[in-house]
Specification:
The strands form 5 sheets. This protein has a 6-stranded mixed sheet with strand order 2-1-6-3-5-4. Strands 11-12-17-13-14 form a 5-stranded antiparallel sheet. Strands 7-8-10-9 form a 4-stranded mixed sheet, covered by helices on one side. Among the domains are: 27-208, DNA polymerase, domain 1, CATH 1.10.150.120; 399-522, CO dehydrogenase flavoprotein, C-terminal domain (Enolase-like, domain 1). Residues 110-118 and 516-522 have low confidence and may be disordered. Helix content is 34%, strand content 21%. The radius of gyration is 24 Å and the shape is globular. Strand 13 and strand 14 (364-369) form a beta hairpin. The protein is α+β, with helices and mostly antiparallel strands and 522 residues long. The protein is built from 20 helices and 21 strands. The termini are far apart.
C-alpha cells in the first residue's frame, strides 16, 4: 500500500509533514516545529482549553456524511470546530485546515501570511482588551479561538448570544486568574464592534486541492524503538476500514482521541499501528429510519447528543454538561460507548433507552443490546478484528418519560461521580415499564434490575419510589474513590429516583427548576 506525508492547510498554505511520530500532538507540532507559540499547553489532557484551536473542513464534505445534526459552525463553505490541540494527533489533520490565534491577524488584514506588525485587532481580541479579559494571558489564546468560532457562528446566523449561551460555549476553557465576568463581558462586546469575518475562499480553494489526495497511509519511525516503523491508516470507506481491522486486529482503533490522547501524554503508552475512523463518512451519519434513531459510531458527541435531545428534550442539560465543546466536537459517541468506562456519560442514557449496537468484522455484522456489551471493568464482547459501527435507539414511546442526571464536583467540564439514565412508561398512573441505568455505581454501567421490578406494574406513587430506592442497595455495591464515597453514591442514587418521581408524578409534577427547592425542604 502506497504511503504519503500528512498534508493540511496552515497559515494560508498546504503543509506536508513527514517523519513525525503518528502520535505527535498538534500542539507539539505547532510550538516546536511550526514555531507558532501562541497556542499554550496547560493540562495536556483536554481539560483546560489553553490549547484550543479551530479545525476547518469543507462543509460539503461534512454534509456528505449524512449527519442530520451537524453542530459545527458553517461559514462560507467551511465547517469550523474548536478542539484541543494537546490531545489531537497530527495525522488526523490530513485534508483539513488548522486555524490558530496567529491566523487572526490575517483575518483582520495583516500583511502577508506571517504579519510582523498587527495594526488591527480581531473583534474578539479588541473586546478582550477593552473588557480587561486577560491577566497572565496564558489561557487567553484558547478563549480567543473558542470565541472566534462563536463569533463566526452567530454572525453567520445573524444572532447575538445571551450571556448564558456564551458561558456554555466557553465551558471547555478554564481561567485561573482573570475570572469569567470580564471574559463574558468581552464575549458580548465583540458583537458590538465593527464586523471582521473570516475570509474562507482561500482556505476552501486549498482544501479542494487536498481532496484529490488518496486516503492517508502514513509511516514514520518509532522514536522510542530504533528500527521500528509505525503505520497510521485513515481509510475513507467502511468496507476498507473493516477489511483493515480484520487484517490487523492488533492495530489501535482511534476515533476522537479524547481518551487515547491521554494514554500517550500521561501514561507514555506505545500505541503501535493506528487505524483512524475519522475519515469514514458512513460512520458519521445520523438519521431516522424504521422507528429508530441511527447514530454512526463516528458521529461527534456534539452532533449525536444534539440528535438525541431533538427527540428527548430532557437530555439537553446532560448534553450541556458532557465535557466541554472542544471535547464534544472531537470525541465520538461510539468511542465513548466502546471505551466502556463505568462513568462514561453516554451509556446510562443509551441503555435506559434500550439502545442496540451494531458490530462488524470484515463483511459480517451482528447486533446486540448495549447493556449486554459490557462484561466487567473495561471488558466487553468486542471480538478480535471487530469494530463498533452504529447505535440504534428506539424513538420515544407515546407515554415514555426520560431523565438524565449527572453528579460531579464541578458544574461544567467534569468527570461524573454518578450518572443516571432513568426511563419509565406510564399507563395512566401505573408504571408499565422501567429502565434505570447507572454509571459510577459498579464496575460497568449497569441497570438497577431490583429497582425496576419494585416499580413495574405499581402505581407511580411516593411509596413505590421509596421501595425502588430501598432496592438499590441490592442492585449495587459502589466503591469509594476520589470522586465520591460509597455512602454518598448510594444516597445520591436514591435521591435521583425521588427526583424522577417529583418530575414525572401524575399529580402536580414539578418543573426541573423547582425540584431543588422541593427536595431541600422535604
Amino acid at each position: 500500500m502506497d504511503t504519503r506525508p500528512i498534508r493540511f492547510v496552515h497559515r494560508g498554505r498546504i503543509v506536508s509533514v513527514d517523519g513525525a511520530a503518528p502520535t505527535r500532538s498538534v500542539l507539539d507540532w505547532l510550538r516546536e516545529d511550526a514555531r507558532c507559540t501562541g497556542t499554550k499547553e496547560g493540562c495536556a489532557e483536554g481539560d483546560c482549553g489553553a490549547c484550543t484551536v479551530v479545525v476547518a473542513e469543507l462543509a460539503a464534505q461534512e454534509a456528505a456524511s449524512g449527519s442530520a445534526a451537524a453542530q459545527a459552525t458553517v461559514v462560507g463553505g467551511l465547517s469550523l470546530r474548536p478542539v484541543n490541540a494537546c490531545i489531537r494527533f497530527l495525522p488526523t489533520l490530513d485534508g483539513k485546515a488548522l486555524l490558530t490565534v496567529e491566523d487572526l491577524a490575517a483575518i483582520t488584514g495583516g500583511s502577508g501570511l506571517h504579519p510582523v506588525c498587527i495594526n488591527e485587532l480581531h473583534p474578539v481580541q479588541r473586546a478582550m482588551v477593552e473588557c480587561h479579559g486577560s491577566q497572565c494571558g496564558f489561557c487567553t489564546p484558547g478563549f480567543v479561538m473558542t470565541m472566534m468560532a462563536s463569533y463566526e457562528q452567530h454572525c453567520e446566523a445573524g444572532t447575538v448570544p445571551s450571556r448564558a449561551q456564551l458561558a456554555d460555549e466557553l465551558a471547555g476553557n478554564l481561567c485561573r486568574c482573570t475570572g469569567y465576568r470580564p471574559i463574558l463581558d468581552a464575549g458580548q462586546r465583540m458583537f458590538e464592534l465593527p464586523k471582521k469575518r473570516l475570509d474562507t475562499a482561500p482556505i476552501v480553494a486549498l482544501l479542494q486541492q487536498l481532496r484529490a489526495d488518496p486516503p492517508l497511509h502514513y509511516v514514520a519511525p518509532n522514536p522510542a524503538q530504533p528500527g521500528r516503523q509505525d503505520h497510521f491508516h485513515a481509510p475513507r470507506t467502511l468496507d476498507a476500514l473493516a477489511t483493515l481491522r480484520a487484517q490487523q486486529p492488533q492495530a489501535r482503533l482511534l476515533a476522537g482521541c479524547t481518551d487515547i490522547g491521554l494514554w500517550v501524554n500521561k501514561q507514555f503508552r506505545d500505541l503501535g499501528d493506528i487505524l483512524y475512523v475519522g475519515e469514514v463518512d458512513e460512520l458519521k451519519r445520523i438519521a431516522v429510519a424504521d422507528g429508530q434513531l441511527h447514530i454512526g459510531a463516528g458521529a461527534p458527541l456534539e452532533d449525536a447528543f444534539s440528535a438525541l435531545a431533538a427527540h428527548w428534550p430532557t437530555l439537553t442539560e446532560a448534553w450541556r454538561r458532557f465535557a466541554g465543546p472542544p471535547v464534544r466536537h472531537a470525541g465520538t459517541m461510539g468511542g465513548n460507548v466502546a471505551n466502556g468506562s463505568p462513568i462514561g456519560d453516554s451509556a446510562p442514557v443509551l441503555i435506559a433507552l434500550g439502545t442496540r449496537i451494531v458490530l462488524r468484522k470484515g463483511p459480517a455484522e451482528r447486533e446486540m443490546l448495549l447493556e449486554d456489551f459490557y462484561l466487567d471493568y473495561m471488558k466487553n464482547q468486542l471480538a478480535e478484528g471487530e469494530l463498533l459501527t452504529a447505535l440504534r435507539v428506539p424513538l420515544p414511546a407515546p407515554r415514555q418519560q426520560l431523565r438524565a442526571y449527572k453528579i460531579s464536583k464541578r458544574f461544567d467540564c467534569d468527570i461524573s461521580a454518578l450518572f443516571a439514565g432513568l426511563a419509565i412508561e406510564l399507563d395512566g398512573e401505573t408504571v408499565a415499564s422501567a429502565r434505570f441505568a447507572f454509571g459510577g455505581m459498579a464496575a460497568i454501567v449497569k441497570r438497577a434490575r431490583g429497582a425496576e421490578v419494585a416499580v413495574t406494574g405499581k402505581p407511580w406513587t411516593e411509596a413505590t419510589v421509596q421501595a425502588a430506592m430501598a432496592a438499590l442497595d441490592q442492585d449495587f455495591t459502589p466503591l469509594t474513590d476520589l470522586r465520591a464515597s460509597a455512602d454518598y453514591r448510594r444516597q445520591v442514587a436514591r435521591g435521583l429516583l425521588m427526583r424522577l418521581w417529583l418530575e414525572t408524578r401524575p399529580a402536580r409534577p414539578l418543573a426541573e427548576a423547582s425540584v431543588w427547592a422541593a427536595t431541600a425542604t422535604a
